[in-house]
Design brief:
The structure holds 2 protein chains of 2 kinds.
Chain A: E1 7-11, H1 15-27, E2 31-35, H2 38-48, E3 54-58, H3 66-76, E4 81-86, H4 92-99, E5 104-107, H5 112-147
Parallel strand pairs in A: 1-2, 1-3, 3-4, 4-5
Chain B: E1 13-17, H1 21-33, E2 37-41, H2 44-53, E3 58-62, H3 70-80, E4 85-90, H4 95-103, E5 108-111, H5 116-188, H6 199-227, E6 235-237, H7 239-256, E7 260-266, E8 272-274, H8 276-293, E9 299-307, E10 311-318, H9 325-328, H10 348-358, E11 362-368, E12 372-380, H11 393-412
Parallel strand pairs in B: 1-2, 1-3, 3-4, 4-5, 7-9
Antiparallel strand pairs in B: 6-8, 9-10, 10-12, 11-12
Helix pairs in contact in B: 2-3, 5-6, 6-10, 7-8, 8-10
The chains are: A alpha/beta, B alpha/beta.
Chain lengths: 148, 413
């Protein structure tokens, strides 16, 4: 079975980390874009929101921090799933992220297998959500055409 | 009269030294009637022999005796047992002896024939002096102990801030190392790399990198646990259940080490208001340490007791090698470990102490080389203050002081 790649946007101000994680994700068959701060992330999404399934988002970044970015993503692109990454010991901000609608969070340095599982889960949730919307739209369409 | 002066004569242990048997037996009867416990000797030499095996509070000694005289006896007593108070008995003609006696450290002297009530009041005075001295010594000890605790607490707080800052900064480069190694491993696993030269060497090197990253990650995450804020809401915590559960969790590991875990005391302690998850962590850390400190056939005992109205206490004792005195102050510092590299992070007790402090409690350690170590954790029944109104550092200091004083004075009772 051919794996359909998950389209991932990696957002972190640690350039080397972004590069290495991207290479690894690509090596395992995912499609990866990158951004190095919150604003760049939002700009990228604004241009290609239909081409991203999951955002891997660092919480601690200069300028706009991860939580603010998450809030903005959920407001403007509610279907896109977000996995928070934190170097913070306090899981509090991660938990706050979950409340704001993040799919999950991981502590840095994260275990790649765990990250892969979470990416898969996030992707599945997004697919299901999109499927429900499609069905709802289809029903609506049927009702309309049926009524005509 | 102060409370100390009216102190029951019944608590007093006394040695009466006089060569006159009739005088001894008369006085003995009268003193015993007042409840004083009395030993007697007919000479200074005999008196010293008794003190050797039977320490007393007060010595009453005649001055004129054959062999070792009262003054020589006094000198020996004060030299060997400075805590003992000596009352001298002199004849009318020899009051000068009494004066030299006081110079040599006697509490007082009485002239024969003695007036019994006078003697009783001298005994009471001497005894209350002993009690006062004892009390002062205890107070000084307590103060010193608290000061040591405070210095330790402050040093640990500073070290904690530094260490967690470092841990946080290290996590990012650690993540880069981990992803790089993981990426290279993935490449090596590709079919086109199947025949790459020295592939096994690269795999070996990458495996070591990953293991080392994992080890470093364990350290940084454990350190960062230290700064995690406690749950906002305290919940009902049954320490007996928690201890039994914790013991159960490590029983297998203990068995592997040939170590037995048992309860030596389990008082009925009402559930306290605290954080059960963090307390389980504390118990697990302490029991696991105890297992590692134990030799084969070692025994770990757990205990739980009420410590007054406001406090409860649990402890973990082992029969292991004990902690050398020079290490006792260091064991709570981050990265202090006697385990071999890679075995212990040196953070277990540091984190444990941090948690206990955040829960408003105190942790103390008692250790004797070759006999074993006991860690005692004293906790308030109610987790105070509420997280909403955190105290200023000074308040915190006072609060800790008050709690410590309370805990330690309770212990003395």
């Amino acid at each position: 079975m051919i794996k359909i790649p998950t389209r991932i946007l990696v957002v972190d101000d640690e350039k080397d980390f972004v590069e290495m994680l991207s290479l690894r994700l690509e090596e395992s068959g995912e499609k990866v874009s990158v951004a190095y701060d919150g604003q760049e992330c939002l700009d990228a999404l604004a241009q290609q929101s239909n081409d991203i399934d999951v955002v891997i988002l660092d919480i601690r970044m200069p300028g706009m921090d991860g939580i603010d970015v998450l809030r903005e993503i959920k407001k403007r692109f509610p279907l896109i799933e977000v996995i928070m990454l934190t170097g913070h010991g306090t899981t509090e901000s991660a938990v706050a992220g979950m409340k704001l609608g993040a799919y999950d969070y991981l502590l840095k340095p994260a275990d790649f297998e765990e990250l892969s599982r979470k990416l898969e889960g996030a992707r599945k949730r997004k697919d299901e959500q999109e499927e429900r919307i499609r069905q709802a739209e289809a029903k609506l369409l049927v009702r309309r055409t049926g009524g005509a | 009269m102060s409370a100390a002066e009216t102190a029951a004569l019944g608590n007093i242990q006394l040695l009466l030294v006089d060569d006159e048997a009739f005088f001894r037996s008369t006085l003995k009867k009268r003193l015993q009637k007042r409840g004083i416990t009395l030993l007697e000797a007919e000479s200074g030499e005999a008196g010293l022999a008794i003190l050797d095996v039977h320490p007393v509070h007060i010595v009453i000694s005649d001055v004129k005796m054959p062999g070792m005289g009262g003054l020589a006896f006094l000198e020996r007593v004060k030299a060997d047992y400075p805590e003992i108070e000596v009352i001298l008995l002199t004849g009318h003609a020899t009051t000068a002896d009494g004066v030299s006696g006081i110079k040599a450290g006697a509490f007082d002297y009485l002239t024969k024939p003695i007036e019994f009530d006078h003697l009783i009041s001298k005994i009471q005075q001497a005894y209350s002096l002993i009690l006062r001295r004892e009390e002062q010594r205890r107070e000084a000890e307590l103060r010193e102990r608290m000061e040591r605790q405070m210095i330790l607490t402050e040093r640990l707080a500073a070290l904690g801030t530094l260490a967690t800052g470092v841990a946080h900064e290290i996590n990012n480069p650690l993540a880069i190392i981990r992803e790089s190694a993981g990426w290279m491993e993935m490449i090596l696993a590709k079919p086109e790399m199947a025949d790459a030269p020295r592939k096994a060497d690269f795999e070996k090197g990458l495996d070591r990198i990953e293991k080392a990253v994992e080890r470093a990650r364990r350290i940084t995450h454990q350190l960062l646990e230290f700064v995690q804020k406690p749950e906002k809401k305290a919940s009902e915590t049954d320490l007996a259940v928690l201890m039994a559960e914790s013991a159960e969790l490590v029983r297998r590991e203990a068995a592997n080490h040939g170590v037995e875990i048992a309860f030596d005391r389990r008082e009925a302690v009402a559930p306290i208001l605290s954080d059960p998850y963090q307390l389980r962590q504390v118990m697990l850390n302490l029991i696991t340490n105890a297992i590692h400190a134990s030799e084969k056939n070692g025994r770990i005992t757990l205990g739980l007791e009420n410590a007054g109205d406001a406090l409860v206490r649990f402890w973990v004792s082992d029969t292991g090698a004990g902690i050398p005195p020079e290490n006792l102050e260091k064991i709570f510092e981050p990265f202090f470990t006697t385990k071999s590299p890679g075995k212990g992070t040196g953070l277990g007790l540091f984190v444990t102490r941090g948690i206990v402090a955040r829960l408003g409690g105190a942790i103390e350690v008692d250790s004797a080389l070759t006999r074993g170590t006991t860690f005692r954790v004293t906790l308030p029944r109610t987790l105070l203050p509420p997280a909403a109104e955190l105290p200023s550092p000074e308040q915190k200091r006072q609060g800790m002081f008050a709690r410590l004083t309370q805990a330690l004075s309770k212990e003395k009772e």
